[in-house]
Amino acid sequence: MRTGLAVLLGLLPLSCLAAISRTDSKFEQYHTKFTAASSPLKLDDASYENLTAAPRDYSVAVLLTALESRFGCQLCRDFHPEWDVLGKSWIRGDKKGDTRLLLGTLDFVEGKRTFQKLMLQTAPILMFFPPTTGPGAKPDAQAVRFDFTMGPQSAEQVHDWISRHLPAGPKPPVYRPLNYVRLITITTAILGLVSFFSISSPYIIPIIQNRNLWAAISLITILLFTSGHMFNHIRKVPYVSGDGKGGISYFAGGFSNQFGLETQIVAAMYGTLSFATIALALKVPRMVDPQKQQIAVFIWGAVIFGMYSFLLSVFRIKNGGYPFHLPPF
Q: Which end of the chain is flanked by fewer CB atoms within 10 Å, N or C?
């Protein structure tokens, strides 16, 4: 009896070492395939069961997806390139397997039994299996799911999510391949713009440095926005409206309402007043003939007076209690 008990006690450490060696050999086997492929492992039902089976002293992240077009999973196809970027980045930064993490992909075509077993009705599903033994082991070792409700996720977002479930320590960063097409396109566009500017600069620079041009642009912009252009776009106001008597109303009553045509009329009034003021201040003083200068003063003064009278009448339409007015309006 004592001899049998001693034999059993002697074999117990050996059995533990055998179990550890089996898990180590399984991780090394899959990690070798992972490194050779430089992308997430292609799984089927059998390899999925073997890879996620306990005991395991490593972590597994498996993407359950449906890539074929007949399944109509656009989210699967949008996320798959990001998943490949993450797999290649992890292999590049962790060739020795220090993080004890494996990445795999199980397509619906190769894993129908697994999808049925997990009762999955949608895809993609990203599942993380923590280790059951060794450092970082979880007591329940239940798989954790990643949420795709916000649409396609980037490789960086998934990397951060996986890193939070791994033991503390350095994690390989995400390496994105250089987009040569985009680089060539940007370089060609920059060189084209530089060449165009070099050739056309003698003609463009005088136009850009023209003060009258910038003054006109500034004035038009000011008139456009002070007349209520943005109000029309935000409120989607009508262009005109009926007055209830068979006619057309061009101005809306109240300061919180306006029509599209009303904005254009107000901009034209302010533009006319601005142009008349500029003419009186800059153009008229430069006139050599005193008689013509006097006539110009009367003309532009009359324009300002009449337009300001019309502007006050518009104020009275917008607010019936406005007390001021000028003839003839």
A: N
